[in-house]
């Protein structure tokens, strides 16, 4: 059976990536329904050579839909996911609405696709979490990670298409000697960087950092894994970068790590010391694989117990739309046939 697919948030940065990925992967489907807010109703979007209409989401939007891909923010997901499920759809949600609900699986298909089970709502993890986990998981499986220290360098696209426009506009304004216009971010993003623009909790961690900690523990099914994160927004248009330090229970050499990562699905090793060529967001943009390099022994740890890595991943693809489409593919092959 070919599924009918709906995208809620089809006009957004992730929604547009959904369309590109479904087209590129030639995903089999009976039909595609594109949904957004009433602001977008009546617009059209090109898909497989046809102009498809955007509809304002409503109570009947999910009738006959098998798989609903949600990328319209947490409050929209909370409102419409129960309605979509009641209509018979399985929802794959990109927002944070359901991620930490113990009844809802939080899935990266390369790591824990078995968690999907018979769930009617499946949560896609936070983008920085997915990119880190793609490289930490294969090493964790081999030598068991005890502690992870991560620092992120997050692109404007992580905050949606308006944030990407803000970076471009501010760059033009500032080069013309004008003050930067700020609408999405609280500080200028062009020629600057700042601590991630999410709320800071009583413990001093911002929401993005807390997501990386809690979501990784849930995906790995390791409730006591020690993780600490520092998340920073940088003036990069697209693709997040992360510096990751891992302490292991068992010794691991950098050569072993390179061999493990070279075989890991969805990971590409870019680690050319002679040419000083390592992962860069410009190379990760538009790619499905997460790029990993700067693979080196942590010299502060005895007995080869620590590694340092640098990873870049396109957070609109593997960090959002691609991961959700991969979940849809698991659902399609395992449960809907
Ligand atoms: N950007 C990323 O890298 C990334 C990564 C992982 C997860 N996510 C998550 O994915 C979601 C979307 O992010 P984004 O970056 O794509 O944002 P975005 O570019 O701002 O797009 C938001 C989308 O949601 C729609 N929308 C907003 N309010 C709505 C409403 N009340 N009813 C129906 N549709 C509504 C918008 O439609 P209109 O055009 O009609 O306003 C638009 O299609 C968020 O939950 C975000 O946290 C984003």
Description:
The chain is α/β, with parallel strands linked by helices and 337 residues long. The protein folds into two domains: 137 residues, Rossmann fold (3-Layer(aba) Sandwich); 187 residues, Dihydrodipicolinate Reductase, domain 2, CATH 3.30.360.10. Helices cover 32% and strands 24% of the residues. It is built from nine helices and 14 strands. It has a seven-stranded mixed β-sheet, with helices on both faces. Helix 2 links the parallel strand 5 and strand 6. Helix 1 crosses helix 9 and helix 4 crosses helix 6. The model has no long low-confidence stretch (mean pLDDT 97). Bound molecules: NADP nicotinamide-adenine-dinucleotide phosphate (NAP). The site of NADP nicotinamide-adenine-dinucleotide phosphate has 29 residues, from helix 1, helix 2, helix 5 and helix 9.
Q: Which descriptors would you attach to this protein?
A:
globular, 2 domains, 337 residues, alpha/beta, seven-stranded mixed beta sheet, 14 strands, Dihydrodipicolinate Reductase, domain 2, binds NADP nicotinamide-adenine-dinucleotide phosphate, Rossmann fold
Low-confidence stretches: none
- Give the class from helix and strand content and strand pairing: alpha/beta
Shape: globular
Q: Estimate percent helicity.
A: 25-40%
For the record, the CATH class of the largest domain is Alpha Beta
Strand order of the largest sheet: 3-4-2-1-5-6-7
The small molecules bound here are: NADP nicotinamide-adenine-dinucleotide phosphate
Number of discrete domains: 2
Quaternary structure classification: single chain
Name given to the CATH homologous superfamily of the largest domain = Dihydrodipicolinate Reductase, domain 2
Could you state the order of secondary-structure elements as H and E?
EHEEEEHEHEHEHEHEEHEHEEH
Mean pLDDT: 97
What distance separates the N and C termini?
A: 5 Å
Tell me the radius of gyration: 20 Å
Q: Given the structure, what is the number of helices? A: 9
What is the strand tally?
A: 14
CATH architectural grouping of the largest domain: 2-Layer Sandwich
Main sheet record: 7 strands, mixed
Strand content: 15-25%
């Amino acid at each position: 059976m070919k599924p009918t697919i709906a995208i809620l948030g089809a006009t957004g940065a992730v929604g547009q990536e959904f369309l590109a990925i479904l087209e590129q992967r030639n995903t089999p489907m009976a039909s595609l329904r594109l949904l957004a807010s009433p602001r977008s109703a009546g617009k059209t979007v090109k898909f497989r050579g046809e102009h498809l209409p955007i509809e304002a989401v409503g109570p009947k939007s999910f009738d006959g839909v098998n798989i609903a891909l949600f990328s319209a923010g947490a409050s929209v997901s909370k409102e419409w996911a129960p309605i979509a499920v009641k209509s018979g759809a399985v929802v794959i949600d990109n927002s944070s609405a359901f991620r930490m609900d113990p009844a809802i699986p939080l899935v990266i298909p390369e790591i824990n696709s078995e968690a999907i089970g018979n769930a009617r709502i499946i949560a896609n993890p936070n983008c920085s979490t997915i990119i880190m986990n793609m490289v930490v998981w294969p090493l964790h499986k081999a030598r068991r990670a005890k502690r992870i220290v991560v620092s992120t360098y997050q692109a404007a696209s992580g905050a949606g298409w308006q944030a990407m426009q803000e970076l471009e506009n501010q760059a033009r304004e500032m080069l013309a000697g004008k003050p930067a216009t700020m609408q999405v971010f609280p500080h200028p993003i062009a020629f600057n960087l700042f601590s991630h623009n999410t709320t800071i909790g009583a413990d001093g961690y911002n929401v993005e950092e807390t997501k990386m900690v809690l979501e990784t523990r849930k995906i790995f099914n390791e409730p006591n894994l020690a993780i600490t994160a520092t998340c920073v927004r940088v003036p990069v248009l697209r693709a997040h970068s992360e510096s990751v330090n891992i302490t292991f229970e068992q010794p691991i050499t950098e050569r072993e790590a390179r061999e493990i990562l070279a075989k890991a699905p969805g990971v590409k090793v870019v680690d050319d010391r002679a040419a000083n060529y390592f992962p860069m967001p410009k190379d990760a943009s538009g790619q499905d694989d997460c790029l990993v390099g700067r693979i080196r022994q942590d010299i502060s740890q005895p007995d080869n117990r620590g590694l340092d890595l640098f990873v870049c991943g396109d957070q609109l693809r593997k960090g959002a739309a691609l991961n959700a489409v991969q979940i849809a593919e698991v659902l399609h092959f395992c449960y809907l046939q």
